[in-house]
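Researcher: Here's a chain I'd like modeled. Treat it as a single chain, no partners, no ligands.
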Amino acid sequence: MKKIKTEDAVGMILFHDITKIVPGGFKGRAFKKGHLIKQEDVQELLSLGKDHIYVWEDIEGFLHENDAAIRLKNLACGEGIVFGEIKEGKIDFIAEHDGLLKIDSEELLNLNMIDEIMMATLHDNTYVKKGEKLGGTRVIPLVIDEKKIIQAEDTIKNKIVRVVKVNPKKVGIVTTGNEVFYGRIKDAFGSVIREKAAEYGCEVLGQKILPDDLDKIKSAIMEFINEGAELIMCTGGMSVDPDDLTPSAIKATGAEIITYGSPVLPGAMFLLAYNGDIPIMGLPGCVMHSKRTVLDLVLPRVLSGERITKRDIAIYGQGGLCLNCEVCTFPHCSFGKY
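Model: Modeled as a single isolated chain. Structure tokens:
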């Protein structure tokens, strides 16, 4: 770039955006990069404190901040993302559709370890809505040595940011407990689960309410699977009392138990298993009365097609404490973030 006096800049091309700030009022772009400077612009530029102007001189081996940002976003961004207008060398990442935000944290760290480059995002596994801002990237200087961008392109092997569509599933609800089956108390799980499922467009095939009988619980799970259920949610009988049989019944279907217990509050007594490719969840009592629980963390990941592992659940220990805020802002809070 070349530095010249503003009075001598008429007819030249601005090298970078110029920002105007009015305290308590306006902050934004007064002149856009690439603007052809006219005589009438000179006085306003001077009023913005621009006694000198930088104009672009194409130098081999160096990139303008905008060109570098474009290469970074092409390198880092995968499916489900659209982009905002480049402003002052920064590009925002925007969700193209509703879905689960996936961040490759290691690759993001690798990119940010390269000098003069930055990228910031929301947390991994955040459920996002269409049009929501996910992150952004830019280079720090106005001009960067192209070798830094080439280093990034050689270093980053996987897309850092993606939005994966969440696919609705057919859900079967199995509720156990003599107290509910015999009408001593009213079931409170069914309506909550239907509401949670509806958030993602899932179809609830039905709810089977059963006594504390292992064989009947097992049979109900298998009946739903045979009816085409793609996700089973079991409620009741999930504590450690001797007559709580739901975990044993799930195991008796031949399902692989991934975890019985999670480092999440509310949600410590959560169970996750797979019967083939069909996920089976054992939901703790907190799902009935707490606004957000372990179910809100795991459900969108399951619906995205991800097969959850024991490690995936264990990682929730950091960030697994819900603060039960008076005004809930989930998913834009610390719950489930690590």
